[in-house]
Amino acid sequence: MTMRSTILAAGLAAVALAGCSTMRTPSRDELVAEPSACAAKRFDIYFAEDQATLTDAARTAIGLTATQLQNCQIRTVRVLGLSSSTGSADANQALSEQRARAVAEALTAAGWPAPAFELAAAGDQGATTASGVAEPLRRRTEVLVDAAPL
């Protein structure tokens, strides 16, 4: 490398570094956005065996979610009742429907708009695999919330 190209390279490096020193470092708040509470959420509500009555833990989960979404537009709430494969198919279907209704009623009592609810019940469909293994944690409802900022 010739003396002339060395001086030229050093000069360009100095200009580039000088430009960096004038750049402002963004603050953490500018770089990290807090996720909106008003977004799609999914949560499960669990029940005791053969029961459709909400437990204290279920009421707490419903209350916390209702509080998180209190300043949001609730577009839809899908509540799917599920049951284990214990008992008859008819009894499990009825139990799944009761569970979905119990959760929807609790969410309505927490101030969510009743017209937003879509209730479904799967009974014991899918509670046992093709190989005969019982699926764990089927005594629940799945709640899917579509929410947006007001």
List keywords for this structure.
4 helices, four-stranded mixed sheet, 150 residues, alpha+beta, single chain
Sketch the topology as an H/E string, one letter per element: HHEHEHEE
CA-atom Rg in angstroms: 28 Å
Low-confidence stretches: none
Helix content: 25-40%
Q: Report the total helices.
A: 4
Q: Strand order, biggest sheet?
A: 1-4-2-3
Shape verdict:
elongated
First and last CA, distance: 65 Å
**Mean pLDDT metric:** 84
Q: Please describe the biggest sheet, giving its number of strands, its sense, and whether it closes into a barrel.
A: 4 strands, mixed
Structural class estimated from helices and strands: alpha+beta
Q: Would you count the extended β strands for me? A: 4
Describe this structure in words.
The protein is an alpha+beta fold. Helices cover 38% and strands 23% of the residues. The protein is built from four helices and four strands, in the order H-H-E-H-E-H-E-E. It has helices at 3-21, 28-31, 56-68, 89-109; strands at 41-46, 72-82, 117-123, 140-149. A four-stranded mixed β-sheet has the order 1-4-2-3. Helix 4 (89-109) links the parallel strand 2 (72-82) and strand 3 (117-123). The chain is elongated. The termini are far apart. 24% of the residues are buried. The model has no long low-confidence stretch (mean pLDDT 84).
Task: Write a short abstract of this structure.
With 150 residues, the chain is an alpha+beta fold. It is built from four helices and four strands.
